[in-house]
Every structure is written in structure tokens, then in C-alpha cells.
């Protein structure tokens, strides 16, 4: 079936044919024909953001919370360059996006025309792929191909740069035929021989650990279900990266908590001392590995990843398996059931005993206060009071992000959205807008810092316009806390430009936008204030005044190994003597 | 604590560096060369030589030959990073597949009179170079050979009045009946 229409109409038609219901955008001269085409239909709903970076983060929140691709529409020049941070963010965290940018007419490209920029040049390194469409004949193919590339293999952002004259030109639209690509055919099914070898290694493990990441979430809810099944069958401990939280339920006793720089003591030591590491969809990022030459010195490693370039990039592995997590897990499970291997129960028991010893250290314990709200306590209460609801959490970047990851327990995948790889302050608010749009009846909370929130604050206006009752929960420590922490630990306490000077009154600010402002300063008032926030069916900014000098622990200082973790100096009620749980002396720098 | 001046893990140990010739089959679409060259510069890899031309006009397929250097793990990374670029069909490491035929062409201009001119002619014929242009004071020679032969030729010619060099970079192909 083919029809004649303009390029702008093709864009909208292709979005409809791809099943797109929402797009995030901001108009301008070079996309006016597309905005005109939008005007004539109501299948694709356009959400007007307040900044193009916000559009991209909103699309990320939408994509990550729904499993669908996020779609962005921005104008040329400043519209495109404003989107760059968001694209880089989506690239690092493998979020499927299609971003359509306007461009000056083809005959003006290269002439330094008004609002011209080399969008494909600028975005080449921060997109999975990009296109400059110079003829109307190419447009339908490129539109459909963009969705295919964004969604298949390791997901990522794709830019389509569309000159204005092509938007006006009439051509023949073709519907997406087969989801195939000339050259791009990522491997989804893992190599059977390697999977067999992996199962043998897993079956004979004495000190195994599952190390799982965002790849499981990206692979879809089925992958998470298979992971749970496999982990339960083996009885092995499991840890997760920041990006993988929720793929495995945090409340399950086999879950050791997050791994990495601010991961739990038990997770990091399990990674350090394991003899078999089963990496499913994680990429050995430097925030995970710490010092590379001391990383997990006793382990044989299995690595399942859809992106071959992630394998053996930072850490050498013994059994690499290129494939989609769900496919590989399915094969692993089938083989495991067939073989019904006898695991070494005695060794496993010893391993779990050791882990329980580490766990007993209660690395997340903190000294609570009746005077000031401890940020950890605030997150704990937020979690307890929202438990059982359909809750989606986004974050900004900083200490609050790490506390959210540590103290909020995620039971399901796609409920946790954070900027992991790029670490973009300003991500959380627009991402919450996107998540709320995808889940109108859910509770969507952006756990924020007072500094980060000011980077994309304008998106409050978007939330109001579209009746999106997002909750911005600011852990207000009056500092760029994470920067302050590093300055305290590494730069002699010289707090150079990390104090949040001249803060706005966040309550008044919320009201100025037409939302609801809540402030809480005393631990005793916290529950009531949080409940008030939850029960407000409008956008809320919650200014939670917390301890200004609290640090985020545990912490593996950069360039250090997993067993050189810094712990909170508070041992907790049931605190164990450190010496009894650590075998190598002197490794602990408490 | 004070020695922790970096936010990142330190460099890992040093491994030996080898030279590899890669043949890459790509869709000849706009920007494909920028994508490949940009991947090398963006990730800090070396390009010693790069040649590219459309080899199948109907199908818009180009063949890119890149000579690069790196440790074994870097070469592996380069190959995976190339393979994951969307317009890339195939990447073959000709150095790994056995000793490939590797040729490059160079044009050399020598200027001089008397003994130098005579010596230049002798050298050219010894190397089997072809004379592409001649004046009373100059020659342009064309030599096709391995990179090493070309290098040797250029070095000798420098002593007898070489003023200009133009090289194509390596074109390479695996030996035997197999094809890419
Ligand atoms: C766009 C951007 N700029 C700078 C940074 C570096 N940075 C990381 S955390 C942080 C401080 C964040 O402060 P705040 O939002 O108050 O969070 P807190 O750490 O206090 O919880 C900064 C400046 C960043 N991650 N992103
Ligand atoms: Mg702060």
C-alpha cells in the first residue's frame, strides 16, 4: 500500500504506523511543516516541553518505564544542540529513542544559514545512528529504519535530520514492510556451545554470584522473569548495577543489594571473593569494577551481552555469550532443567555463611536523629509509605540518587529511572514527566537534589499543562552534596563552589508554577508530610530539609578495589566486629 | 587518602602492540567514512593508513582498508566497535586470517642532474618502478609494492633528489580461493 503525501505528513504517518502515541517536542522554523501535519490529526499526542533537553529526558522516562521507544521532535540549530545532552544520556544508558530534528533546506546546507548546524556531525558520537535525509524517496525507509535500529540490538537513540524542503516535498509513502535491515542484524540467540560451557561452570561453582545490569531491563519483563526463575533454581546470591535495579526483587533474600562504588558491602565482597561470576547484561563499568587489576581476582567469568563490544572491553571474561538476555536465559534455564546438576551444597552453604557475615555488618545502617532529617531516613520513609503502590521513581544525580538506589527497594523492572552512564543532573524531572504520561494513574516521584532540580526545573510547567501529578522530592542539603563529599574526602575539605547559595523558596516556586509546595524540616513531621504529598493529585515539590553534611556510604574510592571500601563509622545496633568478617587484614579503610 | 587524585581506575599493564590490516565492507552512504574515522579518533585508536573506494557501484558497497596498531585487546575492541556501526556489513582482520596480499602504490618525484639523475634511474629500474613523467631535470616514478618496499624505495630516492611523494595507502586481500 502506498500513498502520495508530503514529507511532513509522512513523518506523522510513520509515527502512527509505528504505534507511537506520544511525542515530546518544541517547535521552531525548521519543523513548522511537521507541526502543521500534527495539527491535522489526533492519533499522535504532542507534549510541549519547555527545553529540548527536557524533551529527550521525558522521552527516556517514557521509554524506560514503558518498554516502548521514546520520540522527540525539535527544530534545527539551537533545538538540535539543546537535545544533545539528552541524546548522549540515552546513548550511555541504552535507551531507545527516535529524535527528529529540523534542518535548513537542502540547498542552504553548508552556507551557515540561519539556525543551521551540522546536526549529524554533532550527534554522530552520541547516537546509535543518525541520518540526514536529502531526498523524499529515502524518507519512508529512513523513518521505519530508525525505529528498527533504536529498538533492536543494544537499544539507543537515533536522529533523523530532516531539511525543511523535504518536509514540503510530495512523495510516495510506504508502510513498514518487514522489520529487516540491510546490514544491521544483531545476534539475539546465544551460542549453544558456550551456553553449555557456562552451565557447566555454574553447576560446579563453589562461590558463585550473579552480576546483573540494565541489559536485563532492556531485554523486557520476560528476561526479568527468567532471571528470577534461574536465580531461585540455583540458590545463588545476586547483585545488580544501578541500571539493573528492579529486574530482581530487592526484598528477596538472595538479593545482596547494589554493587559498585556505592554498592553494599556484601555485594562488593561477594564480587571480590567469588569463584564464578555470572554477568547478565552488565558492562563492567568503572563505577562497578573499581581498580581493574584487583577486580574479582579469583573468578571465572561468564558475560552475556547483546553488544559484542562490551565483552572483553574492560574486563577479560572466560565465557563470552553474545545475545539478548531473555534468549540466553531461556536457553540456560532449559539446559539447567535438563541436566538437573548437583550443586555443591556444602560449598554453597559456606559461601552463604560468609555472605551473611558480611551482611551482618549492616553497611547501610546510619545514625538517625530526632533533630534533623537524615537523608537516608527520608528515603526509607518514602519507600515505606509508598510500598504496595504502583510507584515509578526517577532521580537527578548526586548523593540523593545513590541514597535512592540504596534505600528504596525496587521489586519490578522499569520502575526505576536514573541517569547512570552519563550522570546528567536535570534528568529526573523531565523523566518523571515522561513516566507519568506513560502511566497516568501511577505514583511518579523524582527523588532530587536542590542543585540538580534547578537544571530542568522549567519542566514543572509541562507537568502542570498536561495534568501530570508528578512528585518532586528534594533532599535539600544546601550542597552539591556529592561534590562536597569528594571535596571532604579528597581535597582537604576545601568546599570550592559546592554550596547551594541563593536557593529559591521551593514551596513558593511550586505555587508559582501552579503546583503544590510542601516543606518538612523535622523527622517527626515527615510521615504526615509524605502522606500529604502522596495524596495530592497534582504536581508537588516537596522541600525536604535534610542534614547538610551527611556522606554517602559505603564507598569504594575511585581507583580502589572492592575490598578497600569505606564504610560509615556507625556500626549499628547489631554491628559485628569488622575483624571477624574480613579475612585479609588491613584492607578496610573505615 | 591523598594519593587518590583521580576519579577513575588507573591504566592497566602494558601489552605488546601489533600492526593489523582490517578490511571493512560498508554501505556507501553519506557520512560512513566520518563514522569510521570518528570512531578511531573518538576512542583514541590509531590509523596508520586508510583507503576507501566504492567497489560495487550498483549495490553502493565500499571497501575500506585500514592499517592500525594496538594491543590484542585493543584490536579486538576496534573490530567490535566497527562491527556495531549500523552501515558496516563485515569486518575482516586480514592479519589474523593469514598472510594477506598487501599492496600500495606510490608516486615519487625526483629532481636532479648528472650522477643523481643516473642513480635515480638505476634505483627505479632495480625496484621495477615505472616512469610516468620525465623532463630534462625530473622524473615521476610509480612503484607498487608492499609498504616496506615502498618505504625502502622512498628512503633511497631521498638521497638522489626526491621532492614529492604521494601514496595510496594499503589495499589488501586474503590469499586463497575464499572471499569476503
Ligand atoms: C550536568 C551536570 N553537571 C555537573 C555534574 C557533576 N555533579 C555530580 S553530582 C553534583 C551535585 C549534585 O547536587 P544535588 O543535586 O544537590 O545533589 P546531592 O548530591 O546534594 O544529593 C554535581 C555538580 C553532573 N553530574 N551533571
Ligand atoms: Mg544537594
TrEMBL record, chain A:
Residue stretches making up the Thiamine pyrophosphate enzyme central domain: 195-331
Gene Ontology molecular functions: acetolactate synthase activity
Family annotation (SUPFAM superfamilies): DHS-like NAD/FAD-binding domain, Thiamin diphosphate-binding fold (THDP-binding)
Thiamine pyrophosphate enzyme TPP-binding domain location: 397-544
Thiamine pyrophosphate enzyme N-terminal TPP-binding domain mapped to chain residues: 5-121
Signal peptide: none
Cofactor: record remark: Binds 1 Mg(2+) ion per subunit. Binds 1 thiamine pyrophosphate per subunit.
Enzyme Commission number(s) from the entry: 2.2.1.6
NCBIfam families: acolac_lg (TIGR00118), PRK09107.1 (NF006581)
Name by which UniProt lists this protein: Acetolactate synthase
Native organism taxonomy: Bacteria, Pseudomonadati, Pseudomonadota, Alphaproteobacteria, Hyphomicrobiales
TrEMBL record, chain B:
Protein's name in the database: Acetolactate synthase small subunit
Family according to the record: Belongs to the acetolactate synthase small subunit family.
Keyword Cytoplasm included in the entry's annotation: no
Recorded superkingdom: Bacteria
CDD domains: ACT_AHAS
PROSITE patterns: ACT
EC code: 2.2.1.6
Origin species: Microvirga puerhi
Sequence ranges assigned to domain ACT in this UniProt record: 21-96
Chain's role: Catalyzes the conversion of 2 pyruvate molecules into acetolactate in the first common step of the biosynthetic pathway of the branched-amino acids such as leucine, isoleucine, and valine.
Reaction catalysed by this enzyme: 2 pyruvate + H(+) = (2S)-2-acetolactate + CO2
Quaternary organization: Dimer of large and small chains.
GO molecular function: acetolactate synthase activity
InterPro entries: Acetalactate_synth_ssu, Acetolactate_synth/TF_NikR_C, Acetolactate_synth_ssu_C, ACT-like_dom_sf, ACT_dom, AHAS_ACT, AHAS_small-like_ACT
Transferase is among the record's keywords: yes
Keywords for this protein: Amino-acid biosynthesis, Branched-chain amino acid biosynthesis, Transferase
Organism lineage: Bacteria, Pseudomonadati, Pseudomonadota, Alphaproteobacteria, Hyphomicrobiales
Pfam family, one: ALS_ss_C
Amino acid at each position: 500500500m502506498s500513498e502520495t503525501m508530503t514529507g511532513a505528513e509522512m513523518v506523522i504517518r510513520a509515527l502512527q504506523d509505528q504505534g507511537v502515541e506520544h511525542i515530546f517536542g518544541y517547535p521552531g522554523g525548521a519543523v513548522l511543516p511537521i507541526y502543521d501535519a500534527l495539527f491535522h490529526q489526533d492519533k499522535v499526542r504532542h507534549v510541549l516541553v519547555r527545553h529540548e533537553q527536557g524533551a529527550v529526558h521525558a522521552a527516556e522516562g517514557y521509554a524506560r518505564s514503558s518498554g516502548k521507544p521514546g520520540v522527540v521532535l525539535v527544530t534545527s540549530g539551537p533545538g538540535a544542540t539543546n537535545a544533545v545532552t539528552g541524546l548522549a544520556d540515552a546513548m550511555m544508558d541504552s535507551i531507545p529513542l527516535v529524535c527528529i530534528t529540523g534542518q535548513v533546506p537542502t540547498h542552504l546546507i553548508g552556507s551557515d544559514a540561519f539556525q543551521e548546524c551540522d546536526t549529524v556531525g554533532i550527534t554522530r558520537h552520541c547516537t546509535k545512528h543518525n541520518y540526514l535525509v536529502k531526498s523524499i524517496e529515502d524518507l519512508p525507509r529512513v523513518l521505519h529504519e530508525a525505529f528498527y535500529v533504536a529498538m533492536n540490538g543494544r537499544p539507543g537513540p537515533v536522529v533523523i535530520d530532516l531539511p525543511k524542503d523535504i518536509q514540503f516535498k510530495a512523495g510516495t509513502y510506504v508502510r513498514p514492510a518487514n522489520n529487516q535491515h540491510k546490514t544491521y542484524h544483531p545476534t539475539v540467540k546465544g551460542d549453544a556451545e558456550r551456553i553449555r560451557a557456562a552451565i557447566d561452570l555454574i553447576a560446579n561453582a563453589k562461590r558463585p554470584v550473579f552480576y546483573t545490569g540494565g541489559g536485563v531491563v532492556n531485554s523486557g519483563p520476560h528476561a526479568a522473569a527468567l532471571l528470577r526463575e534461574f536465580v531461585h533454581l540455583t540458590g545463588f546470591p545476586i547483585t545488580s548495577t544501578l541500571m539493573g535495579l528492579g529486574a530482581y526483587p530487592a526484598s528477596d533474600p538472595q538479593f545482596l543489594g547494589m554493587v559498585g562504588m556505592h554498592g553494599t558491602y556484601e555485594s562488593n565482597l561477594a564480587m571480590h571473593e567469588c569463584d564464578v561470576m555470572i554477568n547478565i547484561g552488565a558492562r563492567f563499568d568503572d563505577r562497578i569494577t573499581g581498580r581493574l587489576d584487583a577486580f574479582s581476582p579469583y573468578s571465572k567469568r561468564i558475560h552475556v551481552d547483546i553488544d559484542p563490544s562490551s565483552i572483553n572491553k574492560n574486563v577479560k571474561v572466560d565465557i563470552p555469550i553474545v545475545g539478548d538476555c531473555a534468549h540466553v536465559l531461556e536457553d540456560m534455564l532449559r539446559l539447567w532443567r535438563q541436566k538437573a546438576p548437583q550443586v555443591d551444597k556444602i560449598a554453597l552453604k559456606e559461601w552463604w555463611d560468609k555472605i551473611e557475615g558480611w551482611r551482618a555488618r549492616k553497611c547501610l545502617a546510619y545514625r538517625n536523629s530526632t533533630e534533623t532529617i537524615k537523608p537516608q531516613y527520608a528515603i526509607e520513609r518514602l519507600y515505606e509509605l509508598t510500598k504496595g503502590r504502583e510507584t515509578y521513581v526517577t532521580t537527578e544525580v548526586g548523593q540523593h540518587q545513590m541514597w535512592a538506589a540504596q534505600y528504596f527497594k525496587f521489586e519490578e523492572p522499569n520502575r526505576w529511572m536514573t541517569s547512570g552512564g552519563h550522570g546528567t543532573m536535570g534528568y529526573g524531572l523531565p523523566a518523571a514527566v515522561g513516566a507519568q504520561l506513560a502511566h497516568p494513574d501511577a505514583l511518579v516521584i523524582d527523588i532530587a537534589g536542590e542543585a540538580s532540580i534547578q537544571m530542568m526545573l522549567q519542566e514543572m510547567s509541562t507537568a502542570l499543562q498536561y495534568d501530570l501529578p508528578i512528585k518532586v522530592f528534594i533532599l535539600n542539603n544546601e550542597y552539591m552534596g556529592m561534590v562536597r563529599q569528594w571535596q571532604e574526602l579528597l581535597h582537604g575539605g576545601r568546599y570550592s563552589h559546592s554550596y547551594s547559595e541563593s536557593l529559591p523558596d521551593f514551596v513558593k516556586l511550586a505555587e508559582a508554577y501552579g503546583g503544590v509546595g510542601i516543606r518538612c524540616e523535622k523527622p517527626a513531621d515527615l510521615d504526615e508530610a509524605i502522606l500529604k504529598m502522596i495524596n495530592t493529585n497534582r504536581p508537588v515539590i516537596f522541600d525536604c530539609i535534610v542534614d547538610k553534611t551527611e556522606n554517602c556510604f559505603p564507598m569504594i574510592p575511585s581507583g580502589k578495589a572492592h575490598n578497600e571500601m569505606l564504610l560509615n563509622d556507625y556500626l549499628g545496633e547489631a554491628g559485628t566486629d569488622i575483624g571477624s568478617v574480613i579475612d585479609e587484614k588491613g584492607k578496610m579503610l573505615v | 587518602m591523598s594519593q587518590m587524585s583521580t576519579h577513575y581506575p588507573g591504566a592497566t599493564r602494558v601489552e605488546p602492540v601489533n600492526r593489523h590490516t582490517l578490511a571493512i565492507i560498508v554501505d556507501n552512504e553519506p557520512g560512513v567514512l566520518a563514522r569510521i574515522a570518528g570512531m578511531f579518533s573518538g576512542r583514541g585508536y590509531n590509523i596508520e593508513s586508510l583507503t576507501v573506494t566504492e567497489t560495487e557501484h550498483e549495490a553502493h558497497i565500499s571497501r575500506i582498508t585500514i592499517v592500525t596498531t594496538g594491543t590484542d585487546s585493543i584490536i579486538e575492541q576496534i573490530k567490535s566497535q566497527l562491527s556495531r556501526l549500523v552501515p558496516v556489513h563485515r569486518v575482516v582482520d586480514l592479519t589474523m586470517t593469514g598472510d594477506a596480499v598487501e599492496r600500495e602504490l606510490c608516486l615519487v618525484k625526483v629532481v636532479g642532474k648528472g650522477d643523481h639523475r643516473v642513480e635515480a634511474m638505476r634505483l627505479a629500474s632495480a625496484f621495477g618502478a615505472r616512469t610516468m613523467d620525465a623532463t630534462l631535470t625530473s622524473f615521476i616514478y610509480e612503484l607498487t609494492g608492499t609498504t616496506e618496499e615502498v618505504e625502502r624505495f622512498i628512503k633511497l630516492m631521498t638521497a638522489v633528489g626526491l621532492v614529492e611523494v604521494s601514496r595510496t595507502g594499503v589495499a589488501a586481500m586474503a590469499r586463497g580461493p575464499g572471499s569476503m
